Amino acid sequence: MTTEKPFLSDVQTLRDRARQHLDDGAVTPNYQGDTGKAIEILQSVLATELVCVLRYTMHSITASGLSSQGAKKEFAEHAKEEHEHALTVAERITQLGGEPNFDPEGLATRSASQYSAGGDLVDMIKENLIAERIAVEHYRELIRYFGDDDPTTRVMLEGILSVEEEHADDMHDLLVAHEGKPMLEG
Length: 186
Ligand SMILES: [Fe+2]
Ligand SMILES: [Fe+2]
Known about the structure:
Elements: H1 4-23, H2 35-62, H3 69-95, H4 107-110, H5 121-146, H6 151-179
Helix pairs in contact: 1-5, 2-3, 2-5, 3-6, 5-6
The structure holds fe (ii) ion (FE2) (2 copies).
């Protein structure tokens, strides 16, 4: 990470991407008439979770340095939880009559969060913190979107959201531990 600026504008891009599915559907969120829309949104959630699995797994293997053991363990734990989220979402897509999209082709484009191999340990922690913040914002919006039209999907997302909030907290604590100061607000 050379400067703060491109880092932060990247977040904006990702947030915009996370929202693009909402923009055209938020006006009339009529789930009964549009399971297709629900499935489309959940495909993007599935992709987001899969990218998080890959990123955390990569970091859990490659993080190095004297003080990286705690972070490696945390990354591995998060990878496992992101995998559980992916499975839950995939099952919901199936329940709604869709076919969960696990195709690696286009995965990064479908995802709201970004894959980044990361440089040093602090870069990795930052990348994960950003991804978690994007997930938290994205899922909060989706929870409002599904509202009472699809309480089952909403409750599922609420469960996932609470874990993502814990993940963001964990990454924030790690960042403070390794860098001594919290990251600027994005
Ligand atoms: Fe997740
Ligand atoms: Fe997470």
